[in-house]
Design goal:
By secondary structure, the protein is α/β, with parallel strands linked by helices. It is built from twelve helices and ten strands. The longest helix has 14 residues. It is globular and about 55 Å long.
Length: 360
């Protein structure tokens, strides 16, 4: 990984790097505790019980106060399994009182009728439930627990029964890339508002997934083309961790003209408009890129966002190297910085999942 530079200019940005734009989305790994054993998890150390260095309630409140001072970014309560943290209603209420929009990312298996009501009352804009296959066998194999699919589907039904907006998150790899139409139909049948496809990033436990289970660059392209064909219905459809998709969508005329080349629409938003805070308070550009930018227990998230040298480099297209550095689409795409790091140990290197050959 490139060495960090600590010098800052009068704007607070690292010298020579663009000043920070607004933080739009903060993913908070509120706990590392989880009741499943997912083979693709970003974590290699998940725990079924409390402890293990997660931030205390007052520390989490302080972080949310600092986030609110930056504006109104969406705060996504994630994990682990965030519903295993007992104080989640207290912290959700605190975030709302500070004017922060909130969302919840859960595996859905713990949600019964009573918990669904409490979630709806907390004011989450959406609850994202993970379904990593269109059937129980596919989902349960990846999630590591038999019955996880049926429990998640039941949890979604409980949420919809109390009027809670639901989003389906699906990790896409070789095990389910052929199920895209079925996943779409499943999301519709469950009355979800959105289906977000998370293209597998091989980090954490996911780094142990066999190469044969991961998608080849041309298979990513097929997923992007499928999204372009299926978009336009009532169901919001969006690929995530899929920067190359922005180039494909633009070729289909599916991106607003004013957004082309802007950081607001850049494919990889890690450190540009998105940040991730771990259960210990460590800040990363995203949940899949283990390049530490600071810790909210020692420094405000706002200060880290403005001054981190890691984030400064990610905001500067000119720092990219390899195929991404040479690519004519880098201001629209940017390549996946986490995949570059996983494959090459350098988050500024070329994206190994990209099929495009610059200059062709």
């Amino acid at each position: 990984m490139p060495a960090e530079r600590n010098a800052a200019d009068r704007h607070g940005a690292p010298v020579g790097e663009p000043a920070a734009g607004p933080l739009r989305v903060l993913f908070w790994e509120s706990t590392s505790r989880c009741n499943l054993s997912c083979m693709h998890c970003r974590r290699q150390d998940v725990w079924p019980t409390a402890g293990h260095d997660e931030m205390a309630t007052d520390q989490a409140r302080g972080m949310l106060d600092d986030v609110a001072a930056m504006g109104q970014p969406l705060v996504i309560f994630s994990g682990g399994e965030p519903l295993m943290r007992d104080d989640w209603p207290v912290l959700a209420a605190h975030a709302r009182a500070k004017g922060l929009p909130i969302a919840l990312a859960t595996n859905g298996t713990l949600i019964d009728a009573d918990l669904a009501g409490r979630i709806a009352a907390a004011g989450f804009r959406r609850v994202a439930v993970s379904l990593d296959g269109a059937d129980a066998q596919t989902h349960d194999t990846l999630r590591g627990v038999a019955g996880a699919f049926d429990a998640a589907v039941a949890g979604i039904a409980h949420l919809r029964a109390v009027g809670q907006a639901v989003q389906i998150n699906a990790t896409i790899a070789a095990h389910n890339a052929g199920q895209l139409d079925r996943l779409y139909e499943l999301a519709e049948s469950l009355e979800a508002e959105a289906l977000h496809l998370f293209l597998l990033v091989p980090v954490g436990c996911g780094a142990k997934i066999a190469k044969t289970h991961q998608l080849a660059p041309n298979e990513y392209e097929r997923v992007y083309e499928w999204v372009c064909r299926r978009r336009g219905g009532a169901l919001e459809l969006r690929p995530t961790c899929a920067p190359r998709y922005h180039v494909i969508a633009a070729s289909h005329g599916q991106l607003p003209q004013h957004s082309v080349g802007s950081t607001a629409s850049r494919g990889c938003l890690a450190g540009v408009a998105v940040a991730f805070v771990s259960h210990r308070g460590e800040v990363f550009p995203c949940g899949y890129l283990p390049a530490s930018c600071g810790n909210v227990q020692r420094q405000s998230i706002g200060d880290i966002w403005r001054r981190s040298a890691v984030l400064g480099r990610l905001r500067n297209y000119d720092t990219l190297t390899g195929t991404c550095g040479r690519c004519e689409h880098k201001s629209l795409c940017g390549g996946c910085r986490a995949r570059a790091y996983a494959a090459r140990g350098d988050y500024l290197a070329g994206d190994p999942a990209c099929a495009w050959k610059p200059g062709t």
